[in-house]
Amino acid sequence: MTDSLSIKQAKKIVLLSQVMPHKSTEQATLAAVEQLGYVQIDTIARVEHAHHHTLWNRVKGYQPELLDRLQRKREIFEHWYHTAAYRPIIQNVSLVSWSCGAYNEVAFSIRDVHESLGNMMRDPQRIKQVLELINQIWMNSPDLRFNQLIYNLQYDYSQ
Q1: b/e for 67-85, b at 16 or more Cβ within 10 A?
Q2: Which backbone phi and psi does 114 adopt, to 5 degrees?
Q3: Are both 83 and 134 inside the same structural domain?
Q4: What is the pTM of this model?
Q5: Among 6, 16, 112, 159, which is most buried by a count of CB atoms within 10 Å?
Q6: How is residue 131 annotated by DSSP?
């Protein structure tokens, strides 16, 4: 015997897989971003920016300030790959660096970063370099802090 779904059941499955609907809270907004993996940032707005439309359709009563609060609390961050996007901190991150006209993609997780930091922190000179770098990024460019930090931590300062 073949199992079958009604149209109503099929629609429900599709809607649930699209992260619909959540209640209007920071946690619901974060859950939507986490389940989607990222929300593309759109800087062109006719009615409102597209990244807000994405969340309005998935989080009941969504308000743009929810996304702003999550970013200030460092639950999500702006990420650039082939497009600008909001990504949850807990997910794996792809870092693309361009050099000599080519690019290399380095996939890492927050755990990988933590382990690398632990290894680097055994060298007093490296500690000083990293702290200076973190301070420089933190003071000068809050929107690029995370990506710049990771890129610079991968740079070989011994040369």
Answers
A1: beebeeeebbbebeeeeeb
A2: -60, -45
A3: no
A4: 0.39
A5: 112
A6: H
